[in-house]
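Working notes for the structural subgroup meeting. M.R. asked for a predicted model of this chain before we commit to crystallization trials. I am recording the input and output together here so anyone reviewing the notebook later can reproduce the run.

Input as submitted:
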Amino acid sequence: MPRPAARLALAALAALTAAGCGGGGGDAGERVPDALLATVPDDRALAVTARVERVVDGDTLVARVGDDRLRVRLLGVDTPESVKPDAPVECFGPEAARRAQELLPEGSEAVLETDPGGERQDDFGRLLAYVTPAGAARSANETLLREGYADLYVYRRQDPFARVRAFRAARDDARRAGRGLWGACR
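Returned structure, recorded in token form:
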């Protein structure tokens, strides 16, 4: 059940979309709308329900919030490259992308939640978010780390995200056990 702040953000987004202020621009209309980011103060987490359109690779997806399509970067994780132009496919990249597709299948619902007080977008204009599949107990971000499909990634090292300790523990456990890329890519 969404928290009161999330319900407020959803209501504000619906009102802005209905008023024609839903945002857009960027590649294929996948930029994060300013109106969406403005629904919650910078020091609070923005949490909205989205529909997954497609998984791009292990740590990036395209989702729809209302009428807006946005590109989302899973906060705190880095998976091996599998689709980067002019770059080789990295060890365990296809496996990480497949696992992300299993966790976040096309058409499914997920909650996108930004870090309270943290960066909301990366340098490419993607929403930085914890992405929790509908009905799941843990985010796809943490699951990918726990199962060895991703490494920990701290976007702003001087001000790490709120879940960094839990994510680091999940990554370290996978590494010690040799799960996923930690066993396959030595």
